[in-house]
Specification:
This protein is an alpha+beta fold. It is built from 3 helices and 4 strands. Helix 1 (about 15-25) crosses helix 3 (about 75-85).
Length: about 90
């Protein structure tokens, strides 16, 4: 499995939706065992500043930016599939 990082802001409505979508998807058997490093950029500013992104939420898989900005449930699912080596 690959490393997943989610950069977000607590007060961001798009981030809240993405985190809710994650909660739903991570309950599915195909995604069991996936771990996501949650990085709240206003709290972990020094870490967030080391990455090149403009919008939150922003996903990295194995240190490669894969999705950024307002995300659909399908976008979040694609990130999880990339990280779990599922083909889509």
């Amino acid at each position: 499995m690959k490393k997943i990082q989610l950069f977000y802001l607590e007060y961001c409505p798009h981030c809240k939706k993405t985190r809710a979508d994650l909660d739903v998807l991570l309950k599915e058997d195909r995604f069991k065992g996936l771990a996501i490093e949650m990085i709240e950029e206003s709290v972990q500013k020094e870490l967030a500043d080391q990455y090149d992104y403009y919008y939150v939420p922003c996903f990295y898989v194995d240190d490669i930016k894969v999705k950024e900005g307002a995300l659909s449930l399908q976008d979040v699912e694609e990130v999880l599939m990339m990280a779990s080596d599922h083909v889509f």
